[in-house]
Amino acid sequence: MSNRAIIVVDIQNEYFPGGQLPLEGIEKAVTNAAKVIEHARSVKDLVVYFQHESADSEIPFFTPGTQEVAIHPVVAPLDQETVLVKHFPNSFRETGLKALLDQQNIEEVVIIGAMSHMCIDATSRAASDLGYKTTIVHDACATLDLEFDGVMVPATQVHATIMAALAFAYGTVTATEHYIG
């Protein structure tokens, strides 16, 4: 086992067509995520999956027990891989992730998944703040259009802004082919 972990954040059916929150570019992101995961398995990196579930029954998405909350089959975990449930954007918050990484002597994390502007951002910042060497594979992540104060922000700009901010102070941001190459 290496000292690196791949953190697969919320690549769930909810984010695909037919789900409540379909993301821009999710098909490309999941294809790239599968490549990162395959590479991780080949070099014996730890692969940890996150599955977001809503803790509030009033929220109409990420409903526990539904098909939408399931991890997408393109990146399905193997039986021996860890799947942690989370209820917050930060994958470290109240999940046991840090304890697992410390137990496995992990020093470096590679983050992929959804949504760039929310869970990828929060998890990447937390990983860096906790002292892990942090890499974000940007084209293995996806997000959606946002609106603020009457201004529509296209998903491509949301994604680019978050990746630029993460690259500025929180980690290395790279593409799939560069990462696995």
Automatic annotation (TrEMBL):
Query: Is this entry keyworded Hydrolase?
Result: yes
EC number(s) recorded for this UniProt protein: 3.-.-.-
Database matches in InterPro entries: Isochorismatase-like_dom (IPR000868), Isochorismatase-like_hydrls (IPR050272), Isochorismatase-like_sf (IPR036380)
A single GO molecular function term of this UniProt record: hydrolase activity
Its domain of life reads Bacteria
> What sequence ranges are listed for the domain Isochorismatase-like?
5-148
Q: Which UniProt keywords apply?
A: Hydrolase
Is the keyword Hydrolase in the record? yes
Give the EC class as a word. Answer: hydrolase
Q: What is this protein called?
A: Cysteine hydrolase family protein
